[in-house]
């Protein structure tokens, strides 16, 4: 199939017009022009389905859990339904899904719980490619005498140096913490391979999928990771965090919690009263992605299949845009591009890009607008 024909097929499968209609905030205008939202760390915009779910919670379901009255029972259902939705996103069991304030808070809490079993001389392996939320919470365990080792990157393409990783794994390694995709340069790490390497020396693996989750499907069974964390506000949901943990691992470690809190997994990992209206929003965010998948592939019946169909469509559309963007950036004289730039290797990266010489980029954009 020719490139123009392929582009046409991708655009047809991904209905941009319908997608834009789902997001009321895209109507915002600045100086008479439609706003462009480029601040990725601030999160994605939110579809109307999520707004409606949060409002419905306050109108019809607002209560604490496990009460003997209607709104409390509805709140139990809200949380259960959201666990089921995230379980389909992760491809795990609902009782392996934990909700929390955000990815950073979840990681800090879990790191502290795991530290109960660590002793001086035990090692944790981190990477310089990671977001600090998957670095500092583990680094603080040096206070207990835990040895922190760090995997370097290959500067030529900003990929993780797997030879360096292998050389630093040993029988003292208790945990490897890695990012699924870099929020700085877009590199997608070979998580399944790294998990296999970690498990070969008896270490657990903790995966930060915050940046990857909007850009590709997650299958924790295929990865065989022990823990994986992400943030729904990166994939059209509210500002919260969600954790997948193998049930055996969630039961193995003792969370820090108050006495009245249940000892049952996964609730025992959710400290205090949850932000239940936002949990309703998480369910709706996953529902939006599944709805997009059914539009892309009407044969997709169950939610997991629909989610995979949505990602097939969005990955193809993003890659088409990425190819065009990277080609244009590389044509700008003096612009330094970081990360993988070969279109033949774009399956190893997501659409996040990093460049230097911003003044040259801005000048090129002005020329583009004037043309």
Tag the structure with descriptive keywords:
alpha/beta; 371 residues; seven-stranded mixed β-sheet
Strand composition percent:
5-15%
Main β-sheet description: 7 strands, mixed
Q: H/E order of the elements? A: HHEEHHEHEHEEEHEHEHEEHHHEEH
What are the low-pLDDT stretches, counting only 5+ consecutive residues below 50? none
Q: Averaged pLDDT, please?
A: 93
Helical residues, percent: 40-55%
Category from helices, strands and their pairing: alpha/beta
Distance between the termini: 31 Å
Radius of gyration: 22 Å
Sum up the overall morphology in one term. globular
Lateral strand order in the biggest sheet:
3-11-10-9-8-4-5
Tell me what you see in this structure:
Strands 3-11-10-9-8-4-5 form a seven-stranded mixed sheet, sandwiched between helices. Strands 1-2 form a two-stranded antiparallel ribbon. A two-stranded antiparallel ribbon has the order 6-7. Helix 3 runs antiparallel to helix 11, helix 4 crosses helix 11 and helix 11 (about 275-295) packs across helix 12. Helices cover about 45% and strands about 15% of the residues. By secondary structure, it is of the alpha/beta class.
Write the layout of secondary structure elements.
Layout: H1 3-13, H2 16-21, E1 29-30, E2 33-34, H3 48-61, H4 70-90, E3 97-100, H5 103-115, E4 123-127, H6 136-139, E5 147-151, E6 153-154, E7 159-160, H7 162-168, E8 173-179, H8 191-200, E9 204-208, H9 220-223, E10 227-230, E11 241-245, H10 247-252, H11 276-296, H12 303-330, E12 336-338, E13 354-356, H13 358-370
Parallel strand pairs: 4-5, 4-8, 8-9, 9-10
Antiparallel strand pairs: 1-2, 3-11, 6-7, 10-11, 12-13
Helix pairs in contact: 1-12, 3-11, 4-11, 11-12
């Amino acid at each position: 199939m020719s490139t123009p024909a392929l582009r046409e097929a991708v655009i047809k499968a991904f209905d941009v017009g319908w997608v834009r209609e789902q997001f009321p905030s895209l109507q915002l205008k600045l100086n008479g022009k439609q706003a462009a939202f480029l601040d990725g760390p601030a999160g994605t915009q939110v579809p109307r389905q999520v707004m409606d779910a949060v409002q419905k919670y306050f109108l019809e379901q607002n209560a604490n859990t496990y009460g003997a009255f209607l709104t409390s029972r509805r709140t139990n259902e809200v949380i259960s339904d959201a666990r089921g939705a995230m379980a389909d996103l992760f491809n795990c069991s609902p009782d392996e899904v934990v909700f929390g304030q955000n990815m950073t808070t979840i990681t800090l809490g879990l790191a502290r719980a795991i530290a109960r079993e660590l002793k001086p001389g035990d090692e944790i392996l981190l990477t310089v490619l990671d977001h600090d939320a998957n670095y500092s919470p583990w680094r603080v365990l040096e206070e207990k005498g835990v040895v922190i080792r760090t995997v370097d990157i290959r500067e030529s393409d900003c990929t993780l140096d797997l030879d360096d990783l292998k050389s630093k794994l040993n029988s003292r390694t208790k945990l490897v913490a890695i990012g699924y995709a870099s929020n700085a340069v877009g590199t997608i790490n070979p998580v399944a391979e790294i998990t296999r390497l970690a498990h070969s020396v008896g270490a657990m693996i903790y995966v930060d999928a915050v940046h990857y989750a909007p850009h590709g499907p997650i299958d924790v069974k295929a990865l065989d990771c022990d823990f994986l964390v992400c943030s729904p506000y990166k994939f059209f949901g509210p500002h919260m965090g969600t954790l997948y943990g193998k049930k055996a691992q969630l039961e193995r470690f003792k969370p820090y919690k108050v006495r009245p809190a249940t000892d049952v997994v996964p609730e025992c990992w959710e400290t205090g009263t949850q932000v239940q209206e936002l949990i309703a929003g998480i369910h709706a965010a996953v529902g939006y992605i599944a709805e997009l998948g059914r539009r892309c592939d009407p044969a997709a019946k169950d939610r997991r299949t629909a989610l995979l169909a949505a990602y097939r469509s969005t990955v193809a559309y993003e890659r088409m845009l990425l190819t065009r963007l990277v080609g244009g950036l590389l044509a700008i004289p003096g612009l330094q591009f970081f990360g993988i730039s070969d279109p033949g290797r774009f399956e190893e990266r997501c659409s996040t890009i990093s460049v230097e010489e911003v003044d040259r980029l801005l000048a090129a954009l002005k020329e583009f607008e004037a043309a």
